[in-house]
Each structure stands twice: as structure tokens, then as C-alpha cells.
């Protein structure tokens, strides 16, 4: 007796243009991720007095980044839900339009306050667009091709992070500071036109009633939690009330969110998903990876520019090996998973990342720069074998019609993990550096000058330059103290990543659930042939209607 093959889930009209759709989604993803890494290069220029910059203070600069992060992280989950309910294409288009307009306004900002506000608006656009990209991929690719498509998606993230500083450096060298935002506008225009022409609509066919209480609790919890984490990192003191009070509010709100979602008949988030070991283990591992990686990126910039003396453009070029490794290996990670399984692939990938962190212990002020290039290749290769399989595991363990919510949870854990990494590891870096350089700074004439110089390596070098010949004796000890602090943070990051590798070994599956999205193993998903029929008649039904209209 033979069993009939399951019908394809994706209508033929959409299947034929799936790679063009992916290219459009990658373009949208690039501009959103690229923006933050570009901005880092422009900070010094923005801080300059007008007309070169807008005279932003250190606090202004920090909040031009933090306002974006706060809004982005706080709205990610809600934006994913809106996409599932009202249409992922609509969410993507709305997000890109808001992002493009906010980019134009940011480029024309006349004061630091305006820039901070417009950056928050950019966060709204990014939150709408980011979950939709991954959710649409899950609805235009058949099960067998999803790992390859997600690999390309993950590689694009790595590329954007790496080329951001190079692009920013070129723009700052040849144009004014606002060009780092204005460059987004033509890319957004092209991507929006392509989305209108190519991307099909899809949504959850049975979204249920709205859950305003759950949505509000999720926003309050995430915003308060991220704000407290950011504040603790700024102060290098998580015991300060300004840090722990928001964190406590966030934890209480998120706890209330979970309890409410367990009891309501129409939850915004089915917390039963977390009873699925594949889903819960995957989101924990992705948070651990970004905790370590975002923390190390924090000190990498200071090492290359402040200690080694490279320009912003040269420092950006030194990130290319990490991006190249991801571009080469991420789309091919599925081949390794097919051979060795998800558990082994992710665990070995995280071991490679941990070894890369340990390699930072070899870096000194005069270490040949090729060592840093090799470390970038090693860590990029490790990331390429962690991010795509983990993302496939997360998305594959959920019903396909919930792709937007699943993508939002995936991105939220990445964002929270990354923010924690920058804050916690940044605080460790600052504390170890301050302790290491304190004896040298004790020779400075005033307590205020000593306090200011101890804030960071950049602050010490700025004071040294101001003091002229007398300040030269500060440079050597300051670099040594920073390198020691970098070694401490790199060792801590290696340990955290090793814990992540252990979690991957213990908790991740040998293989991705056979049913794929909405199939066996998915919480609430049907099994066997019913899964294919439900998938075709569920979210695929909405895609099919658009396909028919297009045809």
C-alpha cells in the first residue's frame, strides 16, 4: 500500500519567484541591520559642534542608540502578532515606509533631541519589518528549501553588521554626518517597490480575539527590562536604583504576562510553546550566543581603533572576515545538519566561537593583525553553523500560521541577549579597566580629572592628549589596562559560550522535527498527512489567494 505524496504547500505562482522574494526580504533586512553599525562610526562627528555635527553630548550619543534599541526590542513581539493577524506583507511595507521616513528626518535633525526622537521612530519601523521577513520566508519556501533560505537570511545579518562600519566610514569621509541616515532612503524606496510587485500576502487564518492586556504587559515588561539593562551598563553598576528598579518592573510585568497568557482563552502568546524542548532550548541558546557576541563587539572596536590606531574605515574592514565566513558557510549549514544533525552542528559551532574568544587572550598591543583576521574567520564560521540551524529549529517547532509570532520571539531573545551582553560585559570591562589604571591616574592633579579619565580608554586618551607631553606617560599604562580588561571579558565570553555549547548538546534535537512548521512536534500542530493538508488550507490559503490575483 502506498501513501500519496503531500501536495506542495506553496502555490506555483509564488514558488516560481521565491528567490526574487528572498532577495527583496534580504534587502529590507540589510538596511535595518546596517543602520546601527553605520551609526557607531558617525558618533564622533555628530558630537562635534555645528556645522560639522550637532554638538551631541556623551549622554545624547548613548540615547541616540538606546532610543532605537528600546523601541525596537519593546515592540518586536507585538509587531510579529500584528503581522500574523493583519498580514505580514502589510507589516513589512508599513515598517519599511516608517523606517525610510524616520531615516530622512534623522538625517535632517538639527538638535540631539530631534535625533533621539527620530531614532525611536526608526525603531518602530524596524520592529514591524524584522519579524515579517522571516515569517514570509516560512510561507514562500517549501519545507525542504527553508534551511537554505534561512541560511541566506542569517548570512545577510552578518554581512550588514560587517559592512556597516565600512559604509559609514566612506560616507563620513566624503559627506556630512546625516548621510549615514540618508543612505537608507533610496534603498527603502527600491525595496518597497520590489515588495509591492513580488511579495505575497499571508496571515494567520484563525487569529482569535485580540489580547490587549497581554500585548500591553509584554510591551511594558520588555521596555522596562531593556531600559534597566541599558542603564546598568551605562552606570557600570546594576545595584543603582536607576538600573534595578526598571529591571524589577520588567520582570514583574513579564511574569504577569506569562500568568495571564496561561489563563486567558485567547492568548497573544501560547506559553505552551515553551513546553516544547526544541523551541525553549533554541531560544535560550540564541540568547546566549548574542549575549557573548554583542559583548565582544563592544571591546573589539576600542582595541582596533584606540589601542592599534586604525581608522574607522580600517577597523570596519577588519570585520569583513567574520562576515565573509558567514556568507560562505551559513547557506551551506544545512548540509552539515543533514549529515551530523542539529545538536552536533550547533554545539561544534559554539565551540568554534568559544575558541575564537579564547584567541582574544593572545592579542596584545603589537600582535600581528593577521591573528585578528583568523579569529574573525573562526568566529564567523562558528556563527554560520549556529544561527541558521537554531532559527530553523525555532520556526520548525511552531505551527506555520504562527510564523510572525515565532520570528518575533526569536528576534526578541536575540535582542535581550545582545543588550544584556553589551551592558553586563561592558560593565565588567569598565570596572576592570578602571581598577587597572587607577594607580597611574592618581598622579593627575584633580579628583575630577581622575574620575573623568577613569571612565574609559577613550576618556583617558583624551585627557592625555589635552595634557600634551605630561600626558604621554598615561598612554602605555592605559593600553595595558584595557588589554587586560579585554582579556577578562573575552575569557568570560568564552565561558558563557561554552555553557551554550553544553546546553545545545543536552537540549537540542538530533534532527529538526520531521513535520516542519505545523507538523509533528509542533505545539498545537496536526500530524502526518493532516499537517500538510492543514498547512495548505491554513496560512497557505491566504497566500494562494494573492497568487491567484497576481496570476
TrEMBL record:
Keywords: Antibiotic resistance, Cell membrane, Membrane, Transmembrane, Transmembrane helix, Transport
Region feature Disordered, mapped onto this chain: 517-551
Cited Gene3D superfamilies: MFS general substrate transporter like domains, Multidrug resistance protein D
Record-linked InterPro entries: EmrB-like (IPR004638), MFS (IPR011701), MFS_dom (IPR020846), MFS_trans_sf (IPR036259)
Main location as per UniProt: membrane
Sequence ranges of Gly residues compositional bias: 517-527
Matching CDD domains: MFS_MMR_MDR_like (cd17321)
Membrane topology: Multi-pass membrane protein
Source species, domain of life: Bacteria
Entry's localization field: Cell membrane
Domain Major facilitator superfamily (MFS) profile as annotated: residue spans: 21-512
Keyword Transmembrane (UniProt): yes
Signal peptide from the UniProt entry: none
PANTHER family given in the database record: EXPORT PROTEIN, MAJOR FACILITATOR SUPERFAMILY MULTIDRUG TRANSPORTER MFSC
Protein's name according to its UniProt entry: MFS transporter
Species for this entry: Kitasatospora misakiensis
Lineage: Bacteria, Bacillati, Actinomycetota, Actinomycetes, Kitasatosporales
